[in-house]
Every structure is written in C-alpha cells, then in structure tokens.
Specification:
Layout: H1 5-13, H2 27-32, E1 47-53, E2 59-65, H3 67-70, E3 75-79, E4 101-102, E5 110-111, E6 117-123, H4 126-134, E7 137-142, H5 149-152, E8 163-166, E9 169-172, E10 179-185, H6 188-193, E11 197-205, E12 217-222, E13 228-232, H7 237-248, E14 255-258, H8 275-286, E15 290-293, H9 296-300, E16 308-316, E17 322-332, H10 340-352, E18 359-367, H11 382-400, H12 404-411, E19 418-419, E20 428-429, H13 435-446, E21 455-457, E22 460-472, E23 491-495, E24 501-505, H14 514-526, E25 533-536, H15 554-581, E26 588-591, E27 594-597, E28 604-606, H16 607-616, E29 622-625, E30 635-647, E31 653-663, H17 670-690, E32 695-696, E33 699-700, E34 718-723, H18 746-758, H19 769-777
Parallel strand pairs: 1-15, 13-14, 17-18, 24-25, 31-34
Antiparallel strand pairs: 1-6, 2-5, 2-7, 3-6, 4-8, 8-9, 10-18, 11-16, 12-13, 12-15, 16-17, 19-20, 21-22, 22-30, 23-24, 23-29, 26-27, 27-28, 30-31, 32-33
Helix pairs in contact: 7-8, 10-11, 11-18, 14-15, 15-16, 17-18
Amino acid sequence: MMMSTELLLQKRRTARYVGKDLPRQDSLYKVLGSQEYVDDMKFDGLLYGKVLRSPLPHADVVNVDVSDAAKLPGVKAIITPFNVPTHRFTRHFTYVPWKEIRDRRLLDTRVRFVGDPVAAVAATDPHLAEEAISKIRVDYRELPAVLSADESLRRDAPLIHEEIEVGGQIKKLENNIPYSEVNEEGNSEQAYAESTKVYEDTFSTQALFNAPVEKRSIVASPTPDGGLEVWCSTQSIHGLRYCLSQALKVPLNKINVHDVLIGGGFGLKYNMAMHEPIAGYLALVAGRPVKITMTREEDFTNGGRRPVKMDLKVGVSKDGTIKAMEMDAVLQSGAYDDHIVGAVSCLGGWFFSMYRAKYRRYSGFSTYTNLPVYSAMRGFLNPQQNFAVESLMDDIAEDLGLDPLEFRVKNIPREGDFFYGQGFTVVTKIRSTGLEYLLREGAKRIGWHDRRHPIRSGSKIRAIGFAWGHHSSGTGGEMTKTPDRIESTGAIVKVNEDGTVNVVIGMVDHGGGTHEVYRKICADTLGVKLEDVRMRLGSTDFVPFDTGTHACRGSFVGGTGVMKAAQEAKELLLDEASQLLEEPSSDLDVRDGRIYSKVNPQKALSVAEAVMRAKTRGGGLIVALSRVRPGAAPPNFVACFAEVEVDRETGTVEVKRMVAGADVGTVVNPKDCVAQIHGGVAFGLGMSFLEETCYQGGRIANAGYLDYMVARAPDMPQVDAFFADTYEPTGPFGLKGIGESSTNPVASAVANAVSRAVGKRMKVLPLKPEMILSALEK
C-alpha cells in the first residue's frame, strides 16, 4: 500500500545521508590513479586482438588470403567470414525476443559500411597483431552504396539487407525501411475545428558522436568447459552476456561478465560492439585470453546520435491553447540495427509528452544506409524532437502575440496527465512536477521579462531564448499496453559480523556517482553509518539481473532495488534484536548502527551483536536480495534559459550565460546533480554549434578528437543551476532521474536565442556561422 505524501516527506526529512554532499567512496582511487579500467588489466598468456576493417561502404567479400599473416611467429588465431558461424544475432541490450531485429553476423561475406569487420587476428603482441592485419589480402566486389536517408528512400535504391530476422522469423525486405510506427490519440476533425490557426514546419538534426573519454575495451578469457570470463567497458553486464551468448552460441551459464567501472558511456556502450564477440571467438579458438581495445577512429564507427528529419503540424486556438500536434519523422540509421525499434518508438513518445493537446499523431520510420551504425546517445532521440517542438512553439507564441513563457505554461503537462516516456508501450501517470516553477524561476533569474527582445550594440546582438525538456526515470511504466519492455533490477545487501555492510548490484556506474546514491539509500534505509556501507562490483554469475545503465534509471530503478533489499535486511535484523531485547520488532528501530527500543530507548544493542546472534543461532549472516520491476517511469523535467551574443560580422555566437533548473524529486547527491547539469549544458552546446559527424564517400572524415570538436572548458558559459523542491512518491526517498534530461532542451534554448537575435528561425543543427550570416542578410 502506498504511503501518504506526508509520511514519505517525513522519511526524507529524517534521512542522515540522502541529500547531503559527502565524500564519494571511489574518489580516493581516482585521485591516486589506482582505479583500474579494462585496458589496464593484465592476464597470464594474454593475446592482443586486432580487426581488419572494410575500406568500402558496400561490397561482397570474394576471398580472404591469410597465408602471409599466419606465417608470423606469435600469431595464434585468425578468423575470416569463411571459418566462423554464419547465424544472425542482435547487438542491443534491451532485447525483446518477439520484436528483436537480427541482421548482424560475426563476420559477413558482405560488408555494409567503411569499417565493417572483415577478419581478425590474435597475437602475443599488439604491434605483431597490427602487422598481421596488414598482411591479410582481401578481394572485394564493390556494390552501389547508399550514403544518406534520402538516397535510401529512392525507388531504385539498392537494398542494404535483402532479408533480416524479426522475432526469429525471416522477413524479406522490399526497401531499406526495417521498422515503422504510427500512433494516434484523440479526434482530428474536432481538434482542427477548434484551432484558429495551423502551423507547419520542418526541422532536422545532425549525426553526433557520444565522445566518452575511455575507449571501448574487452578481455575475454576462455574457461576449460568452453565458456568465457569477460571484462568489458559496457553499460550492461547482463545485456552483454545475452548478446555474447547469442553471437557465440555459448550457453548463458558459461559466460560470466564482470562489472567494471567505465570511463563514460553516454549510450555508446549500451550495445555490443562487434569487437566484443570477435574477441570472445578468438579466445575460444586460441584457448587463451584475448584483449581488444578499439582505436579512437574505430570507436566512432560503433555509435552516435542519429540524424532525424521532422515535419511538424500544430493547431492552436485563439487564446493560445494547443489543440492538435502531429509529427512525421525520418530517422537515419546505419548499416545495421541498433535500437531501431526503440528509437522510432521513443521519438514519438517524447513528442506526445511535450504538451497537452486534444489530438496527437506520430508517424516515424527508420532507414538503413551504408554508413556506420548509430546507437543510443544521451537523451535517446529526445534532444532531436525537443529542438523541433520548442523551435515551433517559439514561433507560434510570437505569431499570436503571446509571451512564449506564458504560452508554454498554459500548455505544459500537469499532475494526473499521462507521460509516454520510452514510447507508447510505457505509460506513467505524472504524480509530481515542478515544471512551472522551473520556468518561472529560470525566467526570473535570467531576467526574461525585462529582456525578451534583442539588444544591439555595435556589431553584436544579445538575446535570450529558453526551452524545457523531460526524460523518463527508467523504462518500466505502470500502464504497459504490451509486455515488450525489459525493465528490472535487483540488489544484494549483506550485513557483516562487525556491523559493516556490503551492497552488490548489476547496475554499472558510468562515473557519475550512481553507486554513491546506493550507499546513501542503503545507509539511511538500514540505519547504519555511511562509512560502514561499501559497494562491491559483482558479475553476472552472482548479482541479480539488471537491464543496464540507461534511460535515467540508475538512481530511480537501481535505488529502488537497493532500498527494498535494505528494508528486508532491516526486518531480519529487527527480528533477531527482538529476541535479545525482548521487545516486539515493531517497537524497534535502527540508528547509526544501534538497534534500540522506541518505547524504552535505554534498551539497545549494536547491529554487530544482532548479526552475531543470527550467525551463531539463526544459521547465517543477515543477507537480503531484492527483485524489482518498477511500476512507474516518472518524468523528470529541465528548463533551460540561454543568453547569447551574435557577431553580425562573423556569424559566430558566444553563449554568455545559462540558467538551468531541474525537477529531479529528492536531490540525493547535490554536487553530482549540479555536475550533471553542467555536463548536459556541455553536450547541448556541442549539439548547437560544434559537433557533427562528417562523411566522405561513406568514411567518417573527422573520427578523432583533433577533428571532431566537443565543448571544452573555455567554451562553457556561466551556469546557474537550481532545483525544484518536489517529491516523487514512486521513487526511493522521492527521487527521479537527471542524467539525460539535463541535455535535452539545451540546444533548443540556444537555437531559440540565436533565432531571436538574427530575426529568422534556425531550423537545422548545428548552427554554423555561414547559416547565421545568411539569416542576417535576409
């Protein structure tokens, strides 16, 4: 039974650690440089793997000659399309068997993008492996290539895949569209009849790279029974285990993937990159552990934010009430499936969730191209739709003569409305929202009402723009129409003989402090000191199943799993203490590692004493395990205000100041939440001006940080971060997520500010100086 809001708030008020800035457990290791990442790991007999990649975007592999490479001393294994299994498998972790697209083989006789694996070697030295790769000779039969979504949609476009597997069944393709979706809600005729004016426009966004600092790396070590021990920079240890099992035809119970801390992911590592099953297969063939660490250039071919073209149509009444909203979207995918179904569905769900309207319709589809694959990236299609929607909302308000702020406040979602985060099969009723507060407080802080109009000084024009965004906290939902979402977690809480506690969970920490959230939740729930709680990294053999770190689910979903395990452990503790203190367990509580009677506080004992009693008389330590599927995926909200200065002579833009407010429910780690906002701003600025994956003949032309520009410290403006005081009743200690939502409205706010400064709507990202100069001329 759900607790009352007052009782929930009381729980937050009495928390010792939740909401406090305290030293993180992993800080010392990182400061000292002793934090070990996968590429740092050493193993006896370790071999080094390298992958030979296609120089062509589309071709048949006719022959592979490995004779010269095989002669090199120290080369222990070579694989080609002609000596590996040929079955198809999936690469993404939110696999749903009956909707799963399988279009990838370990090594295929047809390559479909520049960088597609053709062969691989394992050798005793990385330089030797590189030399062996250079000696492999491949004969190709080149095929016509499709290098954009527009090309892929032509009637005469060559098929990139003639057939794929969907839900285990062969599907013949007549075009390059593997998946499409249409959703509609409400009465179209009535909504447009009530609309005084209808607005239509088209917006498009670019391809971007996730840009984590750590490159992807894996070590796969064979076991005597034909299995694998795996260490990998991945966002889901259980997801990777499943995908490796499918790719290598090795039973799940013979693959053990170890949890390791990773140096950033941002969605790039929420799939199985092809070097990972290749490393596993090389290890099985060679009978020795194999490490493959991708180069930065190779990393670029395994993910990124997909380009989207969006046609919008919005009907509005005279008083500024939105009556109808429609979107038709084309999502460009690469040569293979990577979240294609989820990407198409999520884009529509985010769009449906932006504003209230009597009628909403979404139609979207994805296209194959002969380009490297796109994956999940921070926001997962949310920044794209946000740019389109918030740009048009600014235009509508100005055309109607309304304050864009008041226009939005009039139409934003409210408590009791439904939120379609993660698509139309995941629906959650909104139970908490501080969105209106964020908009009004942000406007106040940046001076919106006094500075709505641009200010010109010489060659410079200053202007303010804003936008708001949202994201889900996980992918569960409470009104799932069809059972096609994998969303669950679990945790183990073990109380030791001295009263200290170990917590194990399958949720991977990207480095943003997720595990620190778990420590605080465990300490406050169990009633022990924070310094007595330690997170331990586990492996798929031992930790409960977890979907993976994505979709702002780290704190919300993982925290729920830890809280439930800690609650069970506390009940076990109180049962033991009840017998020792001769008090009903309902009259007992725990504080600072001390179990005491609420009726007679003098009657008390330590947690350690209760655990020792359980060990000596009860048959073991206090250990609790949780298994959780959250019954909601509540939205978290962000409002972002940007002040920009446009140079009319050069077309360059300097972002002078950002104000960003977030509604994340209870703020568990204040400094880390502020850091997430700063990080979201950096990602948004990159999307606004700097970042774009560029192609030449199908090859990524800027695959490296010398040529691919991300926002750096000098590019960052002053950022004023603040939070709404809300409490989410479905979240542990009232919290919601923040990681992805902090990015989603940033580029939209910047684009609105620039559009206001130049007096013309900017409809394409990134905003380039030549585009701005052209707009100023017109």
